[in-house]
Design a protein that fits this description.
By secondary structure, the protein is of the alpha+beta class. It has helices at 6-23, 111-117, 120-132, 148-158, 182-188, and strands at residues 28-34, 41-48, 52-56, 62-65, 68-73, 85-88, 192-193, 200-201. It has one domain: Ubiquitin Conjugating Enzyme (Roll), CATH 3.10.110. It is 27% helix and 18% strand.
């Protein structure tokens, strides 16, 4: 469906993108909340069925979980002014996601960049790789880790023990997030043009 409102058009494009993404994944699915009847969704709950660390025990050893939920809201000034609002709705132990406290679940991402040229399927993929520990930032340098306690555990325990290391491509869950068909891959080869400062993004898969 085509809309005259650019924001509604963008919401529809995002919904089509995440739906297509999840149709080609055995590990990721979603539910969506409609803006209102007859309009595309502006809120999503994404479920990742992947292995990740949810906490650690008294001996610093990781405790694992396999069901992870992220809420994603697309505000009314998205993507022109605001990026997507993302929050972890399940327990996780990751240096770029707040583990506890007042801001529990807050995910550290570059919201401005994501809002301007990323699409929702790319964000879902990025968050999934964070949960898998294919992607994390634990160094005490900018952009600083969201959770310094977890970052310190990674640098002092997890990496030295060989549990994980992104520089060596050692993740907690190294499975591909998708098993796409060749037809879908061919479609994704095409550059998707986003009418936002005339920016073009490259396809997610090569």
């Amino acid at each position: 469906m085509k809309y005259q409102d650019p924001w509604l058009s963008r919401l529809q494009m995002e919904h089509d993108a995440i739906k297509e993404y999840c149709e080609n994944s055995d590990l990721v699915n979603f539910s969506a909340s409609l803006l209102r009847e007859g309009l595309p969704p502006d809120r999503y709950l994404v479920h990742y069925n992947i292995k990740s660390i949810t906490s650690i025990d008294s001996d610093q050893r990781p405790i694992y979980g396999y069901d992870h939920y992220v809420s994603i809201d697309l505000p009314h000034d998205y993507p022109m002014v605001s990026g997507p609002i993302c929050k972890m709705n399940s327990q996780i132990w990751h240096p770029n996601i707040r583990h506890d406290g007042q801001f529990k679940g807050r995910i550290c991402i570059n919201s401005n960049a994501l809002g301007s040229w990323f699409t929702l399927d790319m964000l879902v993929h990025h968050l999934g790789e964070m949960i898998q520990y294919k992607n994390y930032h634990a160094e005490p340098i900018q952009p600083y880790p969201e959770d310094p306690k977890v970052a310190n555990w990674i640098k002092q325990y997890a990496e030295p023990s060989g549990l994980l290391n992104k520089n060596q491509s050692k993740a907690i869950d190294d499975r591909p997030l998708q098993k796409p068909s060749q037809e879908w891959l061919s479609k994704r080869q095409k550059t998707i043009s986003i009418k936002r400062r005339n920016l073009n993004r490259k396809p997610l898969y090569k």
